[in-house]
Amino acid sequence: MTTLFDYSGVRYINPLTDFGFKKIFGDKEVMKAFLTDLLQPSSPIKDLVFLDKELGPDNETFRGVIYDLRCMTEDGGEFIVEMQNRGQEHFSERILYYLSRSFSNQKGAGDKNWDYSLKPIYGVFFLNFHMKGFKPRYLRTIQMTVSETGELFSDKLKAFTLEIPDFKDKSEDYPKTKIEYWLYILANMQNFKGQLPFTQEQPAFKKVGRISEIAHLTPDDLRSYDKNMDNIRTNNEVMSFARNEGREEGREKGREEGIREGMKEGIYKVAKSMKEMGLPMAQITQATELPEDEIAAL
User: Fold this and answer.
1) Which of 189, 196, 222, 262 supports an S-S bond with 246, CB 3.0-4.6 Å?
2) 22 with 197: CB under 8 angstroms?
3) Nearest CA-CA partner of 184 in 139, 228, 214
C-alpha cells in the first residue's frame, strides 16, 4: 500500500509515538511483564484487564480525563500508563490530578456503608524529557510519606516517572537493571536492525519485537501508524514555526519578556490556523500545548 513515509531499512515502529506505545503496551503479556519488573511484587501478577481509557467528569462543570492506557490487576490495583513526549508547565500537578480522579471514582465511594477502604492506584509515566524542577533520574517513585519521620503514610497512591533521554544512543553495556532494559529498548528501538537485545533477561522482549515489526503490521495498522507519524511531523513544524515567530517578534521588542510574549502569540496564531483548517481539538492541544478552553476562545 502507498504510505506517506518510506519505511525501507526501518525494521521496527517508533515506540515513543502514540500508535507505537499503545501497540506495545496494549498487549496483555507485555504489560504484565513490564509491571512485574517495575513493582517486583511478592507474588506474580496472574492476570490484568484493560479498562476504558476515558474517565468521565464528576459533573457537567468538570472535564473528563483520557488516559493512554488503563488496566487493573486481579487484586483490584489500577494502573494508569502514559507516554509523554513534551514537558508541560504543571506536569507534576497533572500527575496528581490523574491519580486523584481515579482514586475518587472507585465504586465504594458512592456507597453509604463504605468504610473508606480503597484499592491502590498507580500512575506510570514514560517521559521523553527530564522533568523540570527535579534532578534527572531514570526512575522516580512518588508516594505519601510523613515529612518528620519518613514513615509511609499510604501505599494506595503511587506514581512512577521513567525518563528515557539518557538511554538514547548508548551501548548495550549501559543498562544494568530490569527497568533500564525497558528504557533502553524504547529509546533505541528504531535503530535496531536485528532481534531486540536482552531477551534472556526479559523474555517478553521477543513479543515486543514481533508486534513492533513494520513488516508484520496489518494494512489498517500501517495506515494508523503512517497517520500518527504525519501528525508528529505536523506538530513539530507547528512548534518550530511558533518558536520562529516568537523570536522574530521578541527581537522587534528587544526584551526577554518580548521573546516569551512573541512565542505565545506565535502559538496562538498556529492554533487558530489549525482550528480554521478543521483539525481535531486533540491534535491542536498536542501540537500547541494550549488548554482546550483557550483554543475554543480563539
Assistant:
1) 262
2) no
3) 139
The grid cell for 284 is: 491542536
pLDDT digits (tens, 9 = 90+) for 202-230: 999 999 999 999 999 999 999 999 888 88
* Residues 6 or more apart in contact with residue 282 via CB below 8 angstroms: none
Nearest to 164 by CA among 150, 178, 179: 179
Rounded CA separation 140/25 (Å): 20
- Name residues whose C-beta falls within 8 Å of residue 109's C-beta, 6 or more positions apart in sequence: none
Total count of residues recorded for the chain? 298
Place of cell 528587544: 254
**Whole-model pTM over 0.70:** yes
H or E element in which residue 267 lies:
helix 256-276
Pairing of strands 78-84, 69-73: antiparallel
As given in the structure block, the three cell numbers for residue 216 are: 508484520
Per the CB < 8 A criterion, the answer to whether 8 and 214 are in contact is: no
